[in-house]
## 1
Amino acid sequence: MIARRRVIATAGAAAAALPCAAPRDAAAQGSDDAAWPSRPIRIVVGFVAGGGTDLTTRTLAPHLQASLGQPIVVENRPGGGGSLATEAVVRAAPDGYTLLMGTISSLVINPAMQRLPFNVQTDLTPISLAVDVLNILVVPSDRPWRSVPELIAAAKARPGTLAYGSSGVGSAGHLGGALLDRLAGISTIHVPYRGGGQLITDILSGKVDFAIATAATTLPHIEAGKLRALAVPTARRSALVPDLPTIAEAAGLPDYELANWYALLGPRGLPRPIVERLNAAMGEALRDPAIVASLARHGLEPAPSTPEDLARHIREQTVKWAPVVREAGATPN
């Protein structure tokens, strides 16, 4: 995963201008900012309940609610690999009451894959990175493959027949499977779902042969013996599952690496005082030992950042993944 400074916004950082937060109406940033929040805050998640993005948001919500003094409402709005949720937040008033828990697919992959009615880098206000997400390559327990080389050998023996699932077109799991196809010289079928929860339901029933899915959705089933873990797609082994090799080392594919992450953003023009309060609340939540432990159980590593670092991270990830998306031929449903 890309190395970066994991810091909470300081007074000095707060004084810097946000690359993506140019105000829509300076007059709208007056005295109302001081009274914020005075009613419930909605965080929109672009996937169905039960997936990693949903779990992360709901884990953070109680702490954010306590810190900000208003209810946090998590709204699931699946579709388009997170683009429907992103557009809903882009079109919301920049008053701090509608926020987005974005993902690499909604913020980086979708814009590289299709023409969208908004620009992620200019129509959203970065607030903070939330977590780095551990993904795991898994197969149903009734499949015979016990290693990545065995899975690859089966795919080579039956080109175009093995199917892998993902949480949606352009998701990290989709690109991870496409990258495996390209680097291992295999041809498999991509089956997109509307979120991690639906994907896990079908892989448990054997409707798809493998998936690169979040630890949040796979670990309970791995521990129950219903899924078999083969490897992790990261550059290094994970401390959470240290016995699992990386795909790169297991399959002899040194160029294989897949990062995944979630981040909190608001509409363009979100006033700086509100951004600062949300950034501070996120930092506090992501340092809370109980939340850290809860996230770790699901393969989620706290990664708080300044708004400026998040804006930079989105730009860098876009440069990295856009060519991969084009090479994979990824197109929206």
## 2
Amino acid sequence: MYLTPQHILLAGATGLTGEHLLDRLLNEPTVARVLAPTRRALAEHPHLENPVGELLDVLPQLSGQVDTAFCCLGTTIKQAGSKEAFRAVDHDLVLAFAQRARDLGARHLLVVSALGADANSSVFYNQVKGQTEQALKQQGWPQLTIARPSLLIGPRAEFRLGERVLMPLSRLVPGKYHGIETTVLARALWRLALEEDDGTRIIESDQLRRLGR
């Protein structure tokens, strides 16, 4: 477990999971600095550095020590506008962020993927998530933690009909298919970040729920 002050790089700080994770990080006594690039400015905090702009434009400008990186980037095909635009975020942008974090010295990457991620899936969404996981493994991370949450439960700024319909059902199904609160996921991610376990770990949603209680 880390006892020295941590320098954190976080992508997706304005998203459903990222905002809860950011709040937790800024209130952790072992976190000295959170570097969180976003498209819109965040509330000021003495331990927060918040470069504002499109992530691809901001990435080359990031500097300073980074110990651990969290990637909470993600969209939907509908929100992105096309399959190509979806892949540009959930695959290309995730990999670009991860590589920049590695360049800055991060040893541990924690990335939010998705339940059912499989590079060989016939479902495009799951296929892209699986291909992203595969590519991350090839970046040579000393420690890589891949979180695969099921349906995320929490208030969103935008309306998603499919999620509104599935959310009540997701609370009833057992095991890893049970929906997970974003606050629970954020707690689980931080606990996983504190563990020193070299290599790649894939953490399924039921494990995430137990860790985040």
